[in-house]
Amino acid sequence: MPGKDDFIGRHIGNNQIVSVLGSGSFGTVFLARNLHVATHMVAIKFMNSAHVDSRQERENFIHEASILVKLKHPFILPILDFGILDVNGSESLPYMITEYAANASLRQRLQSHSPQLLPLSEVLTILTQVGQALHFAHQQQIVHRDLKPENILFNAQAAALLADFGIATEMPTSTIRDGAPIIGTPVYMAPEQFEGTVSKLSDQYSLGCIAYELVTGRKPFQAVDFISMGMKHAKEPPISPRQFHPSLPAHIEQAILKAMAKDRTRRHADIATFIVALNTPASSFSASTGALITPSRRFELGSTPLTIGRARNSQYVVVDSQVSSHHAVIHSADQGHTITDVGSTNGTFVNDQRLAPGNLRLLKSGDSIRIGNTVCTYQINTPAQVEKNTYASSAEDNPSLLPPVGLPPPPPPRPRSIAPFPQPAAGAVAPKKPALYRTPWIVALISVLLLLTLAVGFLVIPPMLRNNQATAATPSSNSAATTAAHARGMTATARVVSAQATTSVVHVTATAQALLTATITSAQNLLTNSTGGTPALDDPLNDNSGNHGWSENSNCAFTAGAYHATIMQKDYFTYCPASSTNYANFAYQVQMTIAQGDEGCLLLRYSATSSSHSYDAFCISSDGSYHFITKPLNDPSNSVLKDGTSTAITIGRNQSNSLTVIAQGPKYTIYINSQYVLTVTDSTTSQGSVGVGARDVGNATNVACSKAKVWEMKA
Fold this sequence. Notes:
Elements: E1 11-12, E2 15-24, E3 27-34, E4 41-47, H1 55-69, E5 79-87, E6 91-99, H2 106-113, H3 120-139, E7 152-154, E8 160-162, H4 200-216, H5 226-235, H6 241-244, H7 250-259, H8 271-279, E9 290-293, E10 298-301, E11 306-309, E12 316-317, E13 328-333, E14 336-341, E15 348-350, E16 353-354, E17 361-362, E18 368-371, E19 374-380, E20 385-393, H9 439-473, H10 479-530, E21 537-539, E22 556-559, E23 562-567, E24 572-577, E25 586-596, E26 599-608, E27 613-621, E28 625-631, E29 638-645, E30 656-664, E31 667-672, E32 675-681, E33 689-696, E34 701-712
Parallel strand pairs: 11-12, 20-29
Antiparallel strand pairs: 1-2, 2-3, 3-4, 4-6, 5-6, 7-8, 9-10, 9-19, 11-13, 13-14, 14-17, 15-16, 15-18, 18-19, 20-24, 21-34, 22-23, 23-34, 24-33, 25-30, 25-34, 26-27, 26-33, 27-28, 28-29, 30-31, 31-32
Helix pairs in contact: 3-4, 3-8, 4-7, 7-8, 9-10
């Protein structure tokens, strides 16, 4: 390649080179002036001839450059022209002409502010603009491969422009060949990039490294050579950004570190998700979900992008001549959804404002979206209610049955930790059906028998000892007769005492059994009386048409004719309230099937404020156990108040169980498959919504619910 000064004054098309702007390993960038408009300045980048030293490579350059010329986005440095310059007939130099970014690069801006950090608002603006540009490029299947502050420029309006998409990296020389280096700047390269693998996710990692540097003032890793740097990226975790910038919001740190995950499958789903995470404070709930309501149907928006257009392969096909084949796309984000126009002819409008092609627009609930002649509405569903279980029992005593008359009540249970249920090993025998949970009665009866046994001992043993002593003092000639007489006396005494003891045991046992029978009979009568009238809520749970406000989000959804609660986070509980319901005293019944995983739950008296929420819940497991959990207002997590096992539960997955809870003041009477199981007293909540839920104690859980009914009761 000729010397830099040899290019000064040379004409390239309608432009004359006036000075050198900079140079690097792939070539040199010059400033040039348009010959017809003197005030119009452009930049011309000449690439080293080594990258086009064959006919095939020149053809590749023309092909790739023609693609980049069409890459039009407000935050991408536009390529105006390209070509191959023959120098003296012996050397070919590929070049590209771009707009001139007058306000230098991000690297120069950082250097001018050092040692001070850029304002956080400015950092987020830069990352958002670059992220939007990169996301648009990824949609066109173009990967940058060499993101770094030097390749982020600023135009006269101070907007960030992503530059230098690295044409050379699209050519055969971009891979390791004959010892050639891997393309990229090591300090910003993803771990897999050091092994020759590049993708959209490696671009995300590089942007994460840039974000790290912007918020800390330092690069994430330092090393003396290429191999050492590769090892740091692959093995060494970055220091927490908040150690260098203590006031940095936690959600920004979390978003950056996720983008820099060593395992690329653990990074954000895409650049759009990363940018939204940077700009959205974290909440205690999982990502919001939404729906696109169209004139013909409702599209539930999950993690899968919703493509919109006239083409038949679009998820939402709009038959309208004003709509392009590929018109727009809606992407999932941590706190909602974004919509992007993908270069449509007639534009995409949100609240009557036309979107710039490629720009991300974060949607708000109620936004009107117009595509051609079709108007849709975006609606944010209730956020997924997910929180961690503490698995700690409360010390509060809530006996399931009253103790028998005349006996002291059993001591209150001590607080204890509840570990997640162990899963059976492969080939393990299925657990035996658990016994009915009647621990208080069993303890009471055993206590009675022990007391009676002691009483018998005190009545029988002292006379025996006295008789034995008298026998020892009698002359030997009378010993046999005396012994026989005493033996007969002892036998008679023992028979009398035994008969008395047996009578007492029978009497106490009969009393306990009578009380138990009376309690069960009373509970069954309560069930019959409470559920015999017309229900205030009678919902088959096929869909949300009953206007009960069942939550719809990534964890709560109507699928295959049932309402599903799903949780895939170990030791977490997801709850799905019917927000339009509000009951104080009621009987609540749901048909429940644990299709997968651990526990299905009835949500009771759910109530929420702007900052917290409270509820009670009764959960059953596919192994025959149950838990009653409670979540007081302003407490960070729930806790187990009561647990046990019941033969009333039909055990196993994909088995249907009918759950009924009768709430009267602080007392809950609970039934499974119309059989009384227990009574719990808890004053955490007094009124609120009903709902369902799922509990993951080691396995991803999916619970299908149907036939929800509520009968209101008097206090």
